Amino acid sequence: MPRIMVVLIAIFLSGCSVYHPIPLTSKEVNKSLLPPDTKYIKVQAHEIQHPILKPLEFDDRDGLSPDEAAILAVIANPELRAIRDRRDIARAQILQAGILPNPQLSATLEIPTGGATQGTINAYGLQLDWDIITALILRGSNIRAAKRQAESIELSIAWKEWQAAEAARIHWFRLAWLEKKLSLLDEEEELLSSNLEALKKGVSLGVKTGLDIAAAQATLQDVRQSRSALRRQMEKERCALNRSLGLPPDRHVTLQRGIDLTAWPPEKIPLTDLTSSLEDRRLDLMALRKGYESQEERLRSAILEQFPKIGIGLIRARDTGDVITTGGAVSFSIPLFDRNQGTIAIRRATRKQLYDEYAARLFGARAEIFSLTKELEGVRAEMAAVEQAVEAQQKLVDAFEQAIEQGNLDVVSLYHAKKDLIDKRLRLLDLYSTMTDLGVALETASGRIFPVGHEKPHPETRDGKWNGDEHEVNS
Fold first, then answer.
1. What pTM was computed for the model?
2. pLDDT tens digits, residue range 255-298?
3. Thinking of the domain 33-112+119-446, which architecture would CATH place it in?
4. How is the chain split into domains, by residue range?
5. Which long-range contacts (CB under 8 A, 24 or more apart) does 260-263 make?
6. What span, in angstroms and rounded, lies between the C-alpha atoms of 300 and 343?
């Protein structure tokens, strides 16, 4: 008997989990927040498995592209780690759903202590009960519910990764356009500074006046103030990009040059292509559908639970007269009051909520796509008008310069015209930035990636057209 007990204890202990502490110390946390090395990133980018994002050859030696930024965010963003931990919870729930209940062993000992005890012995009783029948009936539904829930969680994680990737892309685009604006202001500041020096020489020669100097200085100061505000905005956007990429805020990220920002997003995308089969592309909708299927199984399980719970058992006993009995037992509950009606009502209401939430999310996604496409149309129409205004304003500035050379116009009018030209060119760049913001939003809403092409020989020049990358600067 002792040997059997030792064996049973050994078997029991061999299947038990062991506690391992994970200390929450600053050293360990800071270590976990270190960005991964380049080799690890390249391997993960090449092997990434995601319903939307595709593997790529990660190489940021020529600067970070929008696609590389999206992949890097998914790989290195520490905020996604806690979300991915839900996978382990889901796996544990599947494991729990398939575990059968333990048998229950009960023992009794009865010692004669009074009355006619002569010739009596101690009585005992052993009973082994197992609520196996009900557990087997429910096991299939519980496992299916846990698996559907795990699939829902997996899709929810992929949706969060997709959102993180799109956040990195939008910060990349914004920073790229801010660099172009800074390049424009640098060019204008250099030009105005040169003009101011020329005017000062003209004053010393008596061909220019102090009014000319004041007008040039005022315009130059406006450009410098705009440039200073733009640099602050760039630093804010750079920090946002680093955060989305999982990089320290002081890390300097160089953006890849030669990306054709003006042709993105593509113009001619039929609305039907964006909305058709949307429920099979939008990861949040797919996750909700799996969650709904899980709730269907939970409701099925709750309905099965309303029937009496059945248990079986074995009994062995000896009475005080030394008579030993062996037999079986069957137990079942009598559902007089609790017929699981509360759980059934809750799960039925939850299923209805998930159904309505899915329908509302699908409706909202379709409406969002329609709204974004209309906004893009409006931005493109405004861009066409601003481009014409830039061209007209440039011609006006050229005409004013000729008139001043002929002595037919004061320099104040010229510098007002130049300031208006700068404002219009900056407005055009703002519209391009808005267009890429809307493009990323449309990608997120439609569950599609629009390819980013390389630059044709065309970014912005002083006539408001795009021809070359002379204004590109490193991030």
1. 0.81
2. 998 888 888 898 888 888 888 889 999 999 999 999 999 999 99
3. Up-down Bundle (1.20)
4. 33-112+119-446
5. 260/452, 260/453, 260/454, 260/455, 260/456, 261/173, 261/176, 261/177, 261/180, 261/432, 261/436, 261/455, 261/459, 262/432, 262/458, 262/459, 262/466, 263/453, 263/456
6. 11
